[in-house]
Structures are given as C-alpha cells and as structure tokens.
Amino acid sequence: MLTVYCATTMYPELAASVQAALPNANVINVKVLERGIVAPENEDDFLENAEIVIGNNLVASNYLYKFKKLKWYHTHAAGIDPITNKINAELPLPPFTLTRRTAARNISAQYVITYILATERKVLHLAEAQIRKSWNWSTFDHSRPLESLTIGILGVGSIGTEVARLCKAFGMKTLGMVRDKDLLQNRSSYIDVYRTKEDMPDLLTNSDYLCCCLPSTSETKGLLSGDILSHCKDRGTVLINVGRGDLIDEDTLVKALTNNWLGGAVLDVVPKEPLSADSRLWTLPNMVITPHISGWSKDPKVRKAVVEEFVVNYNNFLAGKPMNYVVDWSRGY
C-alpha cells in the first residue's frame, strides 16, 4: 500500500477526498501552518518518508531540497514559479517529478470571457450610471459584437486553449503565440492563426484583446515591458492578464494606458503582490484589478476536478506510465 501525504491549507477536505478516491492508498493529512510551514509534529515524518505528495506551492518551495525519499510532488496550483524560483543553480535539479494542476483552466477562461463581455457590454459604466441615476443610451454607441473581434493569446497551454475555445464559441478570431515553431505540431482547432515571439508586433497590431496566460520564466519576464505595446495603439487593445504579473512592469502599464496604447486593462496578477495601496495602478482609467482569483474556487466541483486529475496521474505512476502535466525543471513550466 502506497502512502500519499496531503499538505495544504487551501482545500481542508482534500485529504478525505483523495482517500475516498484511492481506497487502497494510505492518505496522511499533514498539518500545514502559515506560509507553508509544516507543523513540527509532522515535519520529521513528512521529510523522511514522503514519496508521494499532493500539496500547495509554498510547502514544495519551503522544503525543495529537504525531502529524503520524494519521488513525485503534485501541486494543486496552475502556476509553479514559487517552486521553480527556489531552484539553486549551484545544485543539481530536484530529483523528484513535479506535476501541476490544470483544473483551473475552466474558471480562468471563464474569468477572461466575463471581462470581455463586461467590457463590450459596458457593464462597469452601466453600474456607475445606476449609482448616478443616469439613463443614458449613448453608453452603447461603441459596443461591439464579439464576432467582429480578434483576441491574441500569449501562451496556448491548457488555460490559453480553453480561452480560445470560449472565444470561438462567441465567433471571435483567435491568434495564439507559442514559444517556438517546434510546438506548432500540437495545433488546436480553436486557434485560427499561430504566431511565435518574433511575430508578436504583428499579433499585437491585429488584436482587440490581448490575453496573457504565460508562466513566469526567464524568457517571459518583462516580455511586454518597454514600448512593444505601442503596436496596440491603433486597435485600442484591452489587456487581460491571468498569467503572471512579471510579464510587464508597472511603469509600462502606466505608460501604455496614459498614452492610449491600450484601451484598457484587466489584471488578475500584478508585478508585486499584494498590490500596495499607493500603487498608481489602482486609479488608472479603464483599469480593473482583481486579487489573483481568476483560477480560484472552493466549489466542490473544483476540488473534485483537482482530485480526479491527481488520481489519473497516481494510476499512471503506479503503472510506470508517463504522467500528465509534468513540469520541465530546466524550462520552469
């Protein structure tokens, strides 16, 4: 009988759900304190004996080089940069397999389509008008049907592909940026046109919406910083970022909005979280800020999806088959 250690505070019922799904496994619920610190009474056993762990990013990053027998760690987060950022370049790469969650793709993509619809149907403007008791039809003078719009998606992994699927359902044209041309062999029917990093100016020029789904890596940090967003000016592109905040720095965001390179921005992630109260981003026009919640829900169906994803990989692990959503330590995603 294999033992699975469950180390998280985000889903209190996760250990029980995993045990119910894997009755032949021994599931141990590890007590985790603030900031991903394992409780002293559990720490020795956890670090000495754990071979399989399902847990959060903080636990993995805190103990990255301290596990004695770990073979596989599954994080229930989609972004894994809190873990990969702890890699010590002077040491060998961690010897265990890291897999990540993709169960966030549905709600993350729904977040994106929510704000596209809200922008085009002027939902925030109408809410403000209601507060002022203003009955004003002119709000809708510039409302556009989605089938007339194009979205550029930076990063077409599980979340980006789901964003494309929803956008295609509304008749939008989809442009997808991938890391390199070698990845074009895995084409999705939901992406109309593929682009690489070298083609990004063209992608920006032709996108009404720009959705960022990229992870944080050495290649993506600062990708949209500088003047590259000036290519969006004629289109008045709206930026939606559900990836990582270090894709673009705060000064660039301010410049892009004040210079009207962007028609607006919806940020679920920012360069430094939590966003400080004195940040200029809070008061920029046409800016929406949410506290990194696009992929977060405690709904039982979401927890069920997390468990189901883990169980598939658990069975693959037992059978010696390749697991899904394995992180490439060297690439950082």
Automatic annotation (TrEMBL):
<keyword id="KW-0560">Oxidoreductase</keyword>
<dbReference type="InterPro" id="IPR036291">
    <property type="entry name" value="NAD(P)-bd_dom_sf"/>
</dbReference>
<dbReference type="GO" id="GO:0016491">
    <property type="term" value="F:oxidoreductase activity"/>
</dbReference>
<dbReference type="InterPro" id="IPR006140">
    <property type="entry name" value="D-isomer_DH_NAD-bd"/>
</dbReference>
<protein>
    <recommendedName>
        <fullName>D-isomer specific 2-hydroxyacid dehydrogenase NAD-binding domain-containing protein</fullName>
    </recommendedName>
</protein>
<dbReference type="Pfam" id="PF02826">
    <property type="entry name" value="2-Hacid_dh_C"/>
</dbReference>
<feature type="domain" description="D-isomer specific 2-hydroxyacid dehydrogenase NAD-binding">
    <location>
        <begin position="114"/>
        <end position="294"/>
    </location>
</feature>
<keyword id="KW-0520">NAD</keyword>
